[in-house]
Amino acid sequence: MGSPRRWGERIGCALSGRAGTGEVTRDRFVACAGGQEQGMQTRELGALRVPALGLGCMGMSEFYGTADEAEAERTIQRALDLGVTFLDTADMYGPFTNERLVGRAIAGRRDEVVLATKFGNERGEDGSRIGINGRPDYVRRACDASLQRLGIDVIDLYYQHRVDTTVPVEETWGALRELVEAGKIRFAGISEAAPETIRRAHAVQPVTAVQTEYSLWTRDPEDDGVLATCAELGIGFVAYSPIGRGFLSGQIRSVDDLAPDDFRRHNPRFQGEAFARNLELVDRVREIAEEKGVTASQLALAWVMAQGGREGNPAVVPIPGTKRVAYLEENTAAADVELTGDDLRRLDEAAPRGAAAGDRYPDMSSVHR
Ligand SMILES: NC(=O)c1ccc[n+]([C@@H]2O[C@H](COP(=O)([O-])OP(=O)(O)OC[C@H]3O[C@@H](n4cnc5c(N)ncnc54)[C@H](OP(=O)(O)O)[C@@H]3O)[C@@H](O)[C@H]2O)c1
């Protein structure tokens, strides 16, 4: 396995921090980056400019085992130092605790951040799942509650997390348009929506970004018309779970590597026969990563980033999730991994469309296609 690329390598300058740690102060970082906006490339999601990759904060509060809150906060602050200023959370992560954590971590640095959160997967304070809710009165209440938990007065990108099939999307998006007009949100997005629904929402209020699972083992948006619809309408695409919920790192070798309460234990792709078949896919990706001297996670992220603009695609921005500074640094360096046409061809062969075994959720009914 090649050693992970460090931040200092990608900007090609000597660092004065502790040798081999990738640590560098912000001033030094800006200087090294030649005065560019923190050295990070940017992409345009509709009219919203964001770094080429963001940080998913979900796992800091729920789903992927227990988190160390202090390390999680350090991870968010380190992300800002590195120019990874596009943060992704949702009211349902925790529930509610993830927004509070993000709010604490960015306090005093609000202006550096493009903050994305989501509504629509309604949950109770006790963690119970109430259901998908797209009713306008709920959208307004959910927004006020998120603003309060985050400790901010405007949300940069507010996503409808799941489509409520009992409410016309025009009604939900009418409420989002009013939130824009009221100055409570700057831009609106939608997650896991069918092309026709994206189109209908866009007619009410411009959709800035569609967020959907996309990675070397989840290539559905290439086939179901979502990427094409985004490209046609000038909408950006945000790829969630770009490391395949950690599987594409190659470090999860058995379901026993996961904590007893880890959500992935119930994910079909992590079960028995499917797990074994998916390991073969990951090992093919790892082999290519080794040859390139990068980690499998870095290669998986570089592949997602390389899809932006490829074959008429829209801008594609991955939001890898981690609760650890070390993984954040490793993932950030992926922004500088260059893939040749030959690399892309080999990766397409190693992980062709439809190659992953198992559905991506235990219950696919909330994935709206
Ligand atoms: N819209 C939606 O419905 C939806 C659904 C899921 C996720 N999301 C968003 O997308 C974000 C990212 O997705 P995700 O967190 O599900 O999946 P991901 O980014 O594909 O993978 C996260 C997992 O990979 C591990 N990991 C990260 N970097 C690694 C590295 N360099 N080496 C080894 N392991 C590494 C993390 O470990 P640690 O946890 O130990 O750091 C975590 O378990 C979430 O945080 C959330 O904000 C949105």
List keywords for this structure.
globular; 12 strands; binds NADP nicotinamide-adenine-dinucleotide phosphate; two-stranded antiparallel sheet; alpha/beta; 37% helix; 13 helices; 15% strand; 369 residues
Question: Your description of this structure?
Answer:
- The protein is an alpha/beta fold and 369 residues long.
- Helices cover 37% and strands 15% of the residues.
- The protein has helices spanning 7-11, 26-32, 69-81, 97-106, 136-150, 169-181, 195-204, 220-223, 226-233, 272-292, 296-306, 325-332, 341-350; strands at 42-45, 48-51, 55-56, 86-88, 114-119, 121-123, 129-132, 155-160, 185-191, 207-213, 236-240, 316-318.
- It has an eight-stranded parallel β-sheet. Strands 1-2 form a two-stranded antiparallel ribbon.
- Helix 4 (97-106) links the parallel strand 4 and strand 5 (114-119).
- The protein is globular, with a radius of gyration of 19 Å.
- It starts with 6 loop residues before the first helix and ends in a 19-residue tail after the last helix.
- Mean pLDDT is 90; it is low at 6-37.
